[in-house]
Design brief:
The structure holds 2 protein chains of 2 kinds. Chain A is mainly alpha-helical. Chain A has 17 helices and no strands. Chain B folds into 4 domains: 127 residues, no CATH class; 166 residues, 3-Layer(aba) Sandwich (Rossmann fold), CATH 3.40.50.11540; 103 residues, no CATH class; 318 residues, no CATH class.
Amino acid sequence: MNLNMMSSPYKHSHKSLTSVMMLVTLAAVPGILAQCYFFGAGVLIQLALALVCVTLFEAGVLYLRGRKIWHTLQDGSAWLTGLLLAVSIPPLAPWWVIVIGTFFAIVFVKQLYGGLGGNLFNPAMAGYVLLLVSFPVQMTSWLPPAELMHHQVGLLDELSMIFSNYSQSGYSLEQLRSNVDGITMATPLDTLRTDVSHGLTVAESMTKPVFTETAGLGWQWVNAAYLLGGLFLLQQRVINWHIPVAMLAALSLCASIGYIFDSGNQPGLAFHLLSGATMLGAFFIATDPVSASTTNRGRLIYGAAIGVIVYLIRSFGGYPDAVAFAVLLMNMAVPLIDHYTQPRTYGYGAKS
Amino acid sequence: MDSLLARISRGQLWPSPGGVHPAVNKSQSNSLPIHILPLPPRLVLPVKQHIGAQGHLLVNVHEQVLKGQALTKPHANWSVPVHAPTSGRIVDITPMPSAHPSALPELSIIIEPDGEDRWCELVPHPNYRELTAERLIDILHFAGISGMGGAGFPTYIKASTKQQIEVLIINGAECEPYISADDVLMQAHSDEIVRGIEVLRHLLQPKITLIAIEDDKPKAIAAMEQACASIEDMQVRAIPTKYPSGGEKQLIQILTSKEVPAGGIPADIGVLVQNIGTMYAVQQAVELGKPLIERVVTVTGDTLAEQRNVWALLGTEVKHLLAQQDFTPEPMQRVIMGGPMMGFTLPTVRIPVVKTTNCILAPSEAEMPFPGEERACIRCSACADACPASLLPQQLQWFAKTKEYKKLEEHKLFDCIECGACAYVCPSEIPLVQYYRVAKAEIREQQIEQIKSDRAKERFEARKERLEREQEERRNRHKRPSRSKEQDTQSKEKVAEALARVKSKQADKGADKDKVAAAIARAKAKKAGEQLEPDNSEVAQERAARKEQARLYKEQKQQADTAEPVAADDKKAAVAAAIARAKAKKAAQAAETEAPAQDDKKAAVAAAIARAKAKKAAQAEDADAPAQDDKKTAVAAAIARAKAKKAAQAAEADEAKVETNDDANSAAAPQSEEDKKKAAVAAAIARAKAKKAAQAADAAKTETAQGEATQDKPNEEATAFDAQSSAEDKKKAAVAAAIARAKAKKAAQAADAAKTETAQGEATQDKPNEGAKALDAQSSAEDKKKAAVAAAIARAKAKKAARDAQNKPDQEDPS
């Protein structure tokens, strides 16, 4: 009888790469829905565009590299990259923005470093930063929440905006972003930053309509939705608690200290936690296992450093939000962190 | 420690990092009773079934054996015997595929059962407490008991540990899925197991004994609790079900919070772990006298109609086990020996059950799907979270793939226990454990290679050095004749320096140091006059000296031809030369004893050279002697030659021991203060010897026949000599005398031989041998050969010096 020879173990947890990626995608659904609710369905169009692009780019590079295309695509990592980039850019950004972004993320940041597992940087965030520094106007043109918009836009309008820069009624993006008074509305982070730089106090700035709630209309709910998804990931043990907790704790600490010492110019804890990409960053971006630290102690350092950098750039830097920069900066420090945070192995320096 | 012990006995458990929770799959097999299999058609007993050496065979092919009869006996470290599991006939003793992942053939005894199952005579020890510990350990040893849970470590070794054991842990955790052999054994034989534990407690005297059982075995826990309820300091500990809690190190951590130090053993921290099955075997061996011949094996997997635990005789082929459970193999069937996490797949079902076989698992593909294709590692660290040793499997995997061995060792690859938890959880289905196994093997291989290459390099360099040295020597030799007088003065200085160095090495600083120094200075001065060898190595000197000797010989011949009368102080010179020779010999020996024994071979060569040289010189002398009518010179030369010859013989063969004694005595003499006297005596003897030898030579000269008369004379002299010697040194003197006699005789012969050169061969060679044998008995055992070689060199030198003194006494002799 011919018996099959194998190497132990023969049992497996049935946890697969694909299932991990699918769980992350699933966890992002509440956040995407919240974005749709407050900022229109543009994000879905961007998402569809991004998924098509990443599939094509990934398949193309895999073909050139002579790798198994469908087998590799199945791991879902490229789609997750597309998803994260799509939810990060303004929903009505022109179509070529996401195309360039995904191309850079997949081809340069991921595949040229050896594909999944080989990339030093978080592909979605590297793509985002490339877009932000290359196309600052398009990348900061966020629509105000739907209820504040003077002109309501439908799905067809959004499609038209993305592919022709004008809505079906002929409005430009600038016009859509303007309120009744013809003044362009920006994101809460942007607004606050501009106002503070114009000499207004945080309290004065907060009276604007984008701030009708705690941390900006719409944005706080988007963040809350991503937090929910993040908790789901924690519960599913897809991610470890170290990075999100360290990052949010560091950001909270910095924000609290800043608020205590300079409440006139500093927006405080709740605003920092619930605006911009804080929750998305903490649970979905910084936790990308490939580019993050891989030891538990290292993850605490990595997460905390991201939290501090986010706070510093938001408060003193040249950009309204900073998750992408912070993550990329810390990506660079990961090999060093990993080297110095090796856990104590059984039998070494054991207590007696 | 005491408070820790208190906490341990209170029942506290500690967490162990990592671990996984695979489906346990034990319910299909863990019900009683333990099935008893019909006798298999044949039994294959590997001689070695455990860590350690194999025993010596006690039986032969075709021999009839009884159940329980020892088939091998232990002989080396860690070897335990194997026994016949049933009565029958040995049909073959041959290498058979072994129960090892490699399945490499191991010498196995094949038994055909006769069906009678007749026991041999058993020696039970129900009152084992009356036995000595040694006897008890011997019982365990000769019952062939080795660990039945893991690697099969011989139990008697563990039981005879010299370290104080505070906590004895009986491992009934059985954390691996599917396996329930220990579970059912505990259910069925809890009393026997506890009695077995008692044996070990009696041997080790632990402060507390813990029986650890995972909490998914409530029946086993209940049975064991009942069995040990009345025993003090023995507790059953239900531990949380988690793989691999039953790993020795992990179990210790859970029960005691202690960690076995890296590279250490549990006994280092006062803990000893034994398996449940082993305890049952101990009880059987001690109380009933039954050796280890069977064990409980879980036979399970969905391809079997009946999944249960069976009593399997050791040596039962897996084929028989499976067939008894209605095995319906699938295509791509796997048969695993051991559990699904750490077991190994068998290449064939004709592998026997051995002492460590706790499970035979024949899964269907549905219950244990084949792994998917390996994907890229995303460093998710699920593996690190699962690792019970707190390693970073994800990093190890990278380093193993890129063969970064240094990094692997930095990341503690060798602390991996290969439990498979990392591979179990890996979402990319990377066969992590396999990578580690390969890397470990490669590193071990590399280490062996490294050692080999280091040795080769050492050898190569030593050889290179030697070749260079030899080349240098050769070059020096070739250069010499072309040298001018101006260069000679330079080299003279160098030689003087070299000799000064040699002199400074002398160990003896005693009374005769000055004399020695003077002699050497004399010799040096003379040698320097002729010798051009700049190399300070003695060998090189000798080689140069040989050439020198040839030249001298020619010169002497010329002198002889012209019949020039030799200067008046010849006699004095001869005596001085004799003294110088004796001293130089001593000095050389002193130098030699200082140097380590590295140069034996070289020395032997030198001796050979010296001999040749001496012969030549002596011949020259012989030729000269009658012409010049200078008897004494001739005699001295003859003596020198004879000695050199003897020395050479000594160096070449064992008979060398002979000479040594003479030399050793004279060498040893100056080395300590108390021996000074002896040295003085020796010197006197040497002088006397020389004188007598001269006389003997004289006497010999008057006779035409060389045989009887010449032999008698020295004997007379020797007797006279004996009488002269002081009482305290009689023995030594006797030796010296014997030598002197031999020498004198030879010298006489040599003197005669000037004319009848051919006739001297046999006699001269035989006589020293006789003397040699006589001396052999007396000689001290140590350093004989070395001393002999040194002596040969020294003598050669001294002789040269003497000759020099004779040749140019008025020019260079400082005395």
